[in-house]
Amino acid sequence: MRSSLDGRRLGRIAVVLALPIALSFSSFPVLAEPSPPASEVAPDHQSSTEQNGVALLRVIVPDEAGIDRLNSMGVDLAEYKKPVDGGFEMHAVLSPEEAQNLRDLGFNIVGKISDQTEVADNSIQRRSAVAAEAQAAAEVDTLTPLRAEWFTSLDNQNFLSVEVKSSAIDAATVLTVAWDSGKDTAPDSGGTATMSRFTDAGQYMYHRFSSPLALTAIPTQVTITSNRGGSATVPVTKWLGEKRKAPKKHYVADFVDRYMDPTEVTNRISGLAREFPKISQIIDLPHKTNGYRRAAQAQFGTVAASTFYVTSKAYGHEGGNDISVALVKPDTASAALSVSVSGKDVVVNLGTDASSAISSTAKAVVDALNGNAAASALLTAATYRGNAGAGLVAAAAATKLTDNLKAPATISRDPFQMKALRIGKQRDGSKVGVFLYCQEHAREWVTPLTCVETAERLLRNYARDGETKKLVDNLDIFIMPTSNPDGGHYSVYDYNMQRKTMTNHCPVNAADPANRNAWGVDLNRNFSVGSVFDGYSGASTTCTSGTYAGPAELSEPEARNEVWLTTQYPNIKFAMNTHSYGGYFMWAPGAYKSAGRETLPRPDFGTENFFWSASNHILSSVQSWRGNGIWPGRTGPIPDVLYSAAGNSADEHWYNRGIIGWSFEVGADVYNPQTKRFEAVGFQPPFAEGHEEAMEFSSGQIGILEVAREYADDRKRPDSKVKVTDRTETSTTFTFEVDGPANVYYTLDGSRPTLNSTKLLAAGMREGSQQITLDKTSDVHWFAVDIAGNVEGNYKPDGNGNNYRKEKVEVRKLG
Fold first, then answer.
1. One domain, residues 744 and 697
2. Distant-in-sequence, close-in-space partners of 15: CB < 8 Å, separation ≥ 6
3. Catalytic pick from 149, 444, 665, 792?
4. Of 38, 334, 600, 773, which one's alpha carbon is 20 to 30 angstroms from that of 589?
5. Is 353 helix (H, G, I), strand (E, B) or coil?
6. One domain, residues 354 and 493
7. Contact yes or no for 768/737 (Cβ under 8 A)
C-alpha cells in the first residue's frame, strides 16, 4: 500500500537530504537523458483524477547510500533496482509535487514509467481482450501459413523457419508445429515445437519461432495445429535455394585488413579514383559536416545546487583548450565577487561574508562570468541542468578547459568534406544508377569496410573478370562508405558506442560535459518521410536520446548530402543502406504510427514481389562467402521484421524519388553447435569476425548490382492467367498468377483495362495475392506490367488496342 508523503515529510526531506552527484573533471558520467521538465511527469489531466497526477517514475542515484536516503525519507520505492551508468535506477511512486521536490534536492528523475491514466486504458484493453478471447474460444480458428522453409547456415547445419497467422488473434491461441524427417516418414518424426506469438505496437502479426530450429533431417512438410482446433499442412521449401557459381580463379577479393576510421576510408576511395580514372571518379558532396570538433568545457562542483560549468566560444582546437578558470577565495572578510581576465586565464574572486567564509553561489558565479565583457568573449557559464544554483561554490585551482577529443592530430578538426566514389564506364546518366551507402550509425564499424571492399572488387576485377566488367559497363554505381564521418571518428577515438553525429543541438540544461557522449543526431531518423515530426514512431525529439531526430527534418548536412546525390543523379533507381548488426534484409515501409500501427503506404503487390524475388539472389550472394544464412524471419519490410524507424533514409529515397531501397544489417547471429544457440556478434566484433561480415555482405552488394543489371536489361514481358481458388453454389473466388513480379490491372464489367483500373492487392502482410470473389458470371479483362515497365502482350494501356487478357469467370451450380 502506498504511504502518504505529506507536506511535513517533504519538509523533512529538505532537511535530511544532501545527495552528492558524482562529477569528475577527467571522466564525466554518461547520462542518457537530462532530467525532464515537470510537465512530463505531471499530466495535464491530473486534476481530474483522485490520485492527482501520481506516477511511477525513474530515479537515478549514484550509490547505495542514495538508496538508503530515499528509504529513510519514506519515499514510496518499488521493488526494483538496476545498475546503470552513474549509479542505480530506482522506481518510485510520486506525486508531481514530490517529484519536483526531489529534483530541487538534486535527484535525477529521468522519466515516467506509468501514471493513473494507464489504469483506465488497461481496464478497457483487458475487457476487450477478455471478450475477444471468450468469442474466439467458441470458434475454430483458420490458419494461414505464410512461410515454411529450411536453410543451411555455417558448418552445414540445417534449420527450419515457419510463420503462420491464426484468425484467433488473442494471446490464448497456441500453435504447435510438427515436421517429418523426409519423404514417406511420419508427420511428426522430425520433431515438434510450440511457436511464439509475434506482436508489434500491441498488434498481433503472426506466430513464428523465436529463432530457427536446428534440424537433423530435411523435412518435406510441416503440420501446424492450434489449440482452437485449426490445422494446416504445407510443404517445406528451401530458403536461399539459388545455386551460386563458384568465383572464378582470377576473381580477386579480400581488400580490408583492419577497422578503418572515416579519414582512412575516404582516403581509400580517393586513391582508387586516382588509380582507375577511366572507370571511376570522386564526387565531392556539397554540404560539409560540422567536423570532428567540440567547444572546450570545464565543470565545477560536487552537488547539483553548487555545480556550474563553462563552455568556450571557440572550438577547442581553435583556442578553447587554452582557456583556464580558477576559483579563488580571498583572505579578507566581506569581499565582493569579481572576475578578472589575463589573456585566456580567467580568475573568479569569490565573495566572502563577515566571517571570511565563501558566500558566492553557483548562480552568482555564472552571472558574474557571463556579465564580464572579457570573460564572456571567451566563454559562457551555466548552472547544472537548469538547477537554480543556490548552493555555495568551493575554491578551485586553475582548471584548463578541454574539448576532451582523443583522436590524433592527423584527424582534421575542420568540417569534413564527404565524398562518394562513382564507378562506371559510362557516367553520363544513361545507365541505371545504384547507390550503396554505409555507416549512417557511427558505431557500426564493419559497414564502411563493406562499401570499401565492394569498390575494390569492382575496380580491380574489371580488367580480369567478365561478369564484373558487365556490371561496370552497364551500371552507374555510387558508393559512399561513410555517411557519418564525424560520429565515426568519435566512435573510433572517444566513445565506441557513439551512434549519432557530433553536432550538439542541446539547450544549456543538457549541454554539460557529462552529456557529451549523448549529443548528436541519429542520421537515420533525420529524413523527411514518415518522421517523428509527422507523428511516426521510432525516433525522439529529446536531444540526448539515442534516436534523436534533430531539430527538424533534414537539419543535418550528412542527410542533405544523401538527398542531393539521389536528386542530382535521377538515374539512381536502386539503393542499399548498410547497417549492423543482426543479419537483416529489409525494405520499405520503414515506419508506422503506434496508434493502430498505421504504416506508411506499402509498396504495391508487384513491387513487393520484386523485393522478395530479388532477396533470394542477394541473400544467396551473402551466403556464398562462408555459408552464413540470413533467416527468413529477418527478411521483409522493416516494421514486419524489426521495428518502426521514423524518418529513415530508405523511406526518403523510395517515397520521394521512387528509388527501390533496401537495408542490410550485417552481422547475422552465429550458431554455436556446442551450446546449440545462436550468438549475437555486436557492433564491433573481433576483427576476424568483422572481416568475414564485410566479405559476405560485400558479396551481397555485388548481388544487388546484379539485380540492377538484370533490371536494366529486362525486356521480357510478363505472362499471367486467372486461377480459380474456390467455388460455391453462389460464388467463385479467383486470383491472378504471374510468371514473375508484376502488377495486375483488371476490370470485372467487360470494360477495357487501363493503368487507372483496379490493381491487384496483397491479401495481407506476407499472405500472397488478393482473392477476388464474384457472385455472378463476369468478363474479366486484365494485363500485367512488371517493375521494369514491360507490359504483357505489348498492350498499350493508354492506347486503343484490345490485346489485353480476357476470360469469362463463371458462377455456376456445382456438380
1. no
2. none
3. 665
4. 773
5. coil
6. no
7. no
Contacts of 111 (CB under 8 A, 6+ apart): 33, 36, 40, 41, 57, 58
Query: For residue 93, what are the domain limits?
Result: 7-120
Which amino acid does the sequence have at 618? I
Quote the cell numbers at residue 357. Answer: 567564509
Q: What is the CA radius of gyration of the chain?
A: 31
- Which residues of the chain carry a pLDDT beneath 50? 1-51
Closest CA to 645 of 525, 465, 762: 525
pLDDT score of 111: 81
Amino acid at residue number 630 = I
Total number of domains constituting the chain = 5
Q: Are residues 578 and 648 in the same domain?
A: yes
163 is catalytic: no
pLDDT of the residue at 127: 59
Cell matching residue 806: 480476357
User: The domain spanning residue 544 has which CATH number?
Assistant: 3.40.630.10
Do residues 545 and 687 share a domain?
A: yes
94, 71: one domain: yes
End position of a domain, from candidates 378, 400, 422: 400
Length of the chain: 815
What's the grid cell of residue 120? 483506465
User: H or E element: which one contains 620?
Assistant: helix 605-626
Last residue of a domain, one of 400, 422, 439: 400
Tell me the C-alpha distance between 269 and 448, whole Å: 11
Residues 392 and 421 in one domain: no
Identify whether residues 451 and 363 lie together within a single domain: no
Helices (H), 714-743: none
Q: Same domain, yes or no, for 482 and 627?
A: yes
The answer to whether 797 touches 791, Cβ cutoff 8 Å, is: yes
* Of 334, 97, 232, the residue nearest 767 (C-alpha): 232
Please, what sign has the CA dihedral across residues 219, 147, 651, 789?
positive
Q: Are 605 and 760 in contact (CB under 8 A)?
A: yes
Long-range (24+ apart) CB contacts under 8 A made by 730-733 are: 730/775, 730/811, 731/773, 731/774, 731/775, 731/811, 732/773, 732/774, 732/809, 732/810, 732/811, 733/771, 733/772, 733/773, 733/774
H or E segment to which residue 341 belongs: strand 338-342
